[in-house]
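Bench notes, bay 3.
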Amino acid sequence: MRRVVVLVAVLGLPSCAFAAKPAPAEQQAPVMMFVGDSFTVGSGPVPPWQTYASQTARLLGWQPIIAGAGGTGFCNEGRAGRTFQRSFEVELAWRPAPDLLVISGGHNDRRWSPERVRGAAASLLSEVRAHWPETRTVVVGPIWMGEPPKKAYGVRDAVAEAARAGKVSFLDPMRRSWPKEAVLPDGVHPTLAGHEGLAAWLAAELA
């Protein structure tokens, strides 16, 4: 009988006595996604969480999701066996739409004609627009830490043309010069300091 009395007494208390206080609403950081090559995903001694892509997100207070693979490009499949468009499809397209998508590259497309590069970039941008019509998209041209070869300018111009035709912003890192300490001994990829410089530049452009 005592158990019954105690149970009735507990159930008789006002419901507000056990109501949990609502948790304070937390403001979620905007999401920025990247598709890119080894500059974006990391190479050599620089891991993915220290690349310019990750550091740009940290500078802006955003949440990064990074896709792509070394050696890839708008046309070039690299060892991964996929282009930027395929990386977008298999790594990003199934996710909820981000606040910002950055497509960065072209360094590995210098063996392809500018016409092919422009067509591939336009195809990717068209698919992104159809899939995420409300997502802001920014295209970053080929990254060269040293003096770019002549063919790199043709690739850069082709990517820029595709971006303009797709009505998205184009940012050109080839207009910047980088100090020697920003380049790894391979003469191609950025050191940690180089990634920091790229991140500061990109964050300022995006802001």
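Next record in the batch:
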Amino acid sequence: MRLFSGRNHAWPVSPAVQTPAGRVELRPLTLQDEHRFMALRVLNTQWLQPWDATTPEDPDPRDSASSFRQMARNLTRSAQAVTHLPWLIWFTPAGEAARLVGQLTVGPIIGGSARTTSLGYWLDEGHAGQGITPMAVALAVDHLFFERSLHRVEVAVRPENAASLRVVEKLGFREEGLRLRFLHIHGAWRDHRCFALTREEIGEGLVARCRGSQSGVG
């Protein structure tokens, strides 16, 4: 039985938008991304460690080629089953080549009477503060609402993660409350602030909202 009945189940799909700083694109995660992905993760080890998902059985995981390949295969199968959308964030500054700068994953996608999902993301430290993450999230949310016919999208953020809190606040996500010991992160069960949007709240979409925010900054 198909869990979700949105208009467009095609995968892969690559939403993209041009911004004043450069082109932001969500490209499907593939096995061919292994070397770029692993290099970026190594470069950002300290930056990402406080926010990395773990499990009680493996509270201090290490990135490895085998773990990347397993992740890529699992997420690709989930994308084909319409339960997850695994994207990498690519950024192309004006006059330069595209570069891998982060990851954004949607899922699980729940259909039926709920039509809801959650998303998570991370960005290379060297590209933080350029408006890339808000636009990447905006692209994903617009795709989920306008192409996949979802009704609700949720983002859970640790209270200590100031950078991620700025992303959801900039995009107008509505805070719904604190979830105690919600996810296993960096070796322990961590509280998270829960933010959400429904289709009725986004008007013409988050990309348009994000562009308006960018144009309003000197």
